[in-house]
Amino acid sequence: MSPLPQVSTGNREPLYNIGVVARMTGVSMATLRAWERRYSFPDSGRTSGGHRLYSENDVVRLRWVKERIDQGMQTAQAINALHHQEQTGNLALVEQFSAAADEKEKKAAPHISIYKDRLCEALFARDLSAADSLLGDALAFSSPEDVILDVIAPVLAKTGEAWESNDISVATEHLATNYIRQRLLMWMLSGPPPKSVSPIALACAPNEWHEGSLLILGALLRRRRWPIAYLGQSMPLQDLAHFLRDYNPSMAVLVAMTEDSASELAQWPQWLPDAAQNGKPIIGYGGRVFNLQPEWRLRVAGTYLGSTFREGLASIEHCLLQTL
């Protein structure tokens, strides 16, 4: 009989907090903490604040151990059995179990799009505990990238629309927006190790205070291992020019949502004549006004990145890969 093939047990990038992993594996949070204390299993990562973060690889291993325990093994025996499989390179059964569990979960899982409506309802009702639970459930069935694109982005847009139509108060809009902002910043901070390239500078145009799209783009770029320098809201062009000269990023991505901020942004070549002439750094831009009024794309120099986040990511990566 030929030996079992050696296979990888998944991505080792820390992604999931302990609550999400408890739901994904059926192992309680108290048990996860106890196993780590008694058996050093799994050896989870930590955020800068000391909170546990688990990788997909950890989830696969936890599911396998739990299945052995459910079949009658003692905890220590199940963990030792897993270690034996890993040490001998015979991980096919672990991988097959994980694939079967994932397939079963996918069939039972609700489509991710339902979470955007539920998350809106929770945030508009100011129920942050429910919002935490919904995001955790969404992450248990989908990647962070899909959650950002298919849940977070639509919720952020719907929050702005609800405020504009007076369906929610200013306080509720601020609560919901800052809740989302904190999660996106966390994904930026806890992303995988960045590529060894010059970072991408991200900034809002002068007098542009709506940074939601910029935060989403930053989180997505970090998920793809691009290093970023996040400058945030309303960046004066003079200060931006000094920063880009000193910091020497590979690209600057600028966002404008209104005609006023786009008009300010159109003046960037005056402050960055070298970039305007030789394309270093690359200047890319996007935002709502360029989608609703395409004529603005002709008034702003640089690279228009597209009308969706997926188009924007593709455009940024295309620009960067040509310079590497």
Q: What's the helix and strand layout?
A:
Elements: H1 18-25, H2 29-39, E1 45-46, E2 52-53, H3 56-70, H4 75-88, H5 92-108, H6 113-124, H7 128-141, H8 144-164, H9 170-189, E3 200-204, H10 212-223, E4 228-232, H11 237-247, E5 251-255, H12 259-265, H13 268-271, H14 273-278, E6 282-286, H15 288-292, E7 303-304, H16 309-323
Parallel strand pairs: 3-4, 3-5, 5-6, 6-7
Antiparallel strand pairs: 1-2
Summarize the structure in short.
The chain has 324 residues and is α/β, with parallel strands linked by helices. It contains 16 helices and 7 strands.
Jot down its keywords.
five-stranded parallel β-sheet, two-stranded antiparallel ribbon, Methyltransferase, Methionine Synthase (B12-binding Domains), Chain A, domain 1, Rossmann fold, single chain, Multidrug-efflux Transporter Regulator, Chain: A, Domain 2, alpha/beta, 7 strands, 3 domains, 324 residues
Please characterize this protein's 3D structure.
By secondary structure, the chain is an alpha/beta fold. The chain folds into three domains: 18-108, Multidrug-efflux Transporter Regulator, Chain: A, Domain 2 (Orthogonal Bundle); 113-189, Methionine synthase domain (Methyltransferase, Methionine Synthase (B12-binding Domains), Chain A, domain 1, Orthogonal Bundle); 200-323, Rossmann fold, CATH 3.40.50. The chain is 59% helix and 8% strand. The protein has 16 helices and seven strands. The protein has helices spanning 18-25, 29-39, 56-70, 75-88, 92-108, 113-124, 128-141, 144-164, 170-189, 212-223, 237-247, 259-265, 268-271, 273-278, 288-292, 309-323; strands at residues 45-46, 52-53, 200-204, 228-232, 251-255, 282-286, 303-304. A five-stranded parallel beta sheet has the order 4-3-5-6-7. Strands 1-2 form a two-stranded antiparallel ribbon. It is globular and about 70 Å long. The chain starts with 17 loop residues before the first helix and ends with a helix. Mean pLDDT is 85; it is low at 1-10.
